[in-house]
Amino acid sequence: MTTTADNAPGAARHGRVGMRGIVKRHGSLTVLHGIDLDIEPGEFFALLGPSGSGKTTTLRILAGLEPLNEGRVMLDGQDVTQREPGERDVAMVFQSYALYPHMTVYDNIAFPLRMVATPKSDVDRAVRDAAALVHIDRLLDRRPGQLSGGQQQRCALARAIVRKPRLFLLDEPLSNLDAKLRLETRVELRKLQRTLGVTTVYVTHDQEEAMTIADRVAVFMEGRIAQVGRPLDIFARPASTVVAGFLGSPPMNLLPAVVRDGVVRVSGVDVSIGRPAGADGPVTLGVRPSALRIADAGIPARVYLVEDLGDSTIVDLDVAGQIVKLRTDQRVGVREGDSVHVAFAGDAAHLFDGATGLRRSG
Amino acid sequence: MSTRRLRTVLLVGMAAVLLAVWAFPVLWALLTSFKSERDVLAYPPGLIFEPTLRNYRDVMFGPSSLLPNLWSSTVVAGASTLLTLLFAVPAAYALARLQFPGRRASGFYVLATQMLPPVGLIIPYYLVLQKVGGLDTYAGLVVIYLTFSLPFAIWLMVSYFEDVPQEMEEAALLDRAGRMRALWYVILPQVRGGIAVTTIFVFLNAWNEFLFAVVLGGNRVRPVTVAMFNFISVEQTLWAKLAAGAMLAMAPVIVLGLLAQRHIVKGLTVGAVKGGGRR
């Protein structure tokens, strides 16, 4: 465990999360295969992965809502594995918001404070402060049913921040908002978290959301963490073909290739990657669509489809029977059926082991 | 256009027929309750007669007054309704939410008790109550009613609890409410409609029950259903008094229904709030 964030000035003093060897089974099905995770105080941490990858289950285990089969959950150095959800000092915003429909917005926000016998005047001040922070202070007398989706979401947020917990857990909080509102709320959420400095764990299947909002991201794949790191690092150096094939829009092209005498050969063409390719054997060559270009020489390909997106174009290319995507913001002078060559800069190439799919150093 | 009109006409017609079938006996009894015994037996039955309040005076203040029996019914039905809800609500919640060994089996048992024909249980119940001195006591009759109303109420309430989103309860747990307060402050308000419906059904069943009351009751515990039966004897049937008694017995139930109707409708409209826009 590193302690850098602890010593940083202005950083949160608490809210350190440690998950050790978390295993979760549903009958004979193993949902989580030993999750290890460390989250620093004050961090905005995203759990990213496709549906069914175990990210929400991990969040619910952190909240204490889901029993686990093996492993321990640590909060600020204390083992809280056996503690009830209410005893963990964590607040959660659910995907459905889970507001109490029979209570006013005011009572919804006040609920977590009243449950621990907070003096009335303190409750009132805290509720009004929290509501003002998320701009719903004019709606306190309404019922959740009278609010728009965005307002409901803010109400759920206010209910979480009102008690100043050591940990925020957000389960796909933006997924029920329309696209425009989602973008706006994303920015606000990030600012809010910076202001409050509370450790935040954020579950999403939207990689753009995770990339823009989080300090660090854990990529979940089939009940395992495939990679943990800062968004740009993961994007620049995916640890495996699984991560590489998941991140990016469209994701990285992965082509079967071989290394012979230190040279990478794909589709019968030697390509230069500007660095040692490592030991001989089968590999997977990864290139992002934006790093590919149509050139006079290179890997032979046939244009399969041209998708014009307005500000950019995606060209689907058939390379030895496999579709490879090329993305460019320039006009491309090719048509479907054309025979072309594609090339890329050597430092844009990613090499993964052919058998394990793990990244080769470099 | 014409098919739509035809549909409307058909629907209204069917509704009228159904309403007539449903309302006829009630209206007939209502008319009868204002007739003299001589007019009741007139043939063909006349719609025009001299209305009288004598039957009502008799069944309320006469020698065969039903007022003590109405009180008896109130005690029996009220007590069994109260006790039923007191046990059924937490039991239904447990069946709907908690995972425990035998959950499925107990759920089936609850339903199975509803399949027994009550008449088969009268003699065992009689013997048991006789042994423990429970014949002709309020406690005895209420306990017997509970054996039927409790499973029924649990079965009814489970579906209402299952409709409450799990996340709402989890939110309450994370908000430090604990199980009991989550149930009280968050879950129960969501199932108000269900509680109202269950109350009505349980109360009605106990109020209208006759078979157990006539066998297990007696001089002290004699609900209105049993007392009304006395108007039917071998020599004659006092139809007008019987009708007046029936009207009297119906009144509290109708009032209760009207009161609860408001809650039932409310319970349906409040519903659960899910994200994703206005409701």
Structural overview:
The complex is a heterodimer of chains A (362) and B (279). In chain A, the strands form 4 sheets. A 6-stranded mixed sheet of chain A has the order 6-7-8-3-9-10, with helices on both faces. The two termini of chain A are 26 Å apart. Chain A is an alpha+beta fold. Chain A has helices spanning 4-7, 55-63, 105-114, 120-133, 149-161, 179-196, 207-213, 231-236, 241-244; strands at 17-26, 29-39, 44-48, 70-75, 78-79, 90-93, 167-171, 199-204, 216-221, 224-229, 253-260, 263-266, 269-271, 281-287, 292-295, 299-308, 313-319, 322-328, 339-344, 350-353. Chain B has 13 helices and no strands. Chain B is globular. The two termini of chain B are 32 Å apart. The A-B interface holds A 63-65, 84-87, 90-92, 94-102, 111-112, 115-116, 144-149, 152-153, 159, 163, 176 and B 165, 167-168, 170-178, 181, 185-186, 189-190, 270-279.
Summarize it:
The complex is a heterodimer of chains A (362) and B (279). Chain A is of the alpha+beta class and 362 residues long.
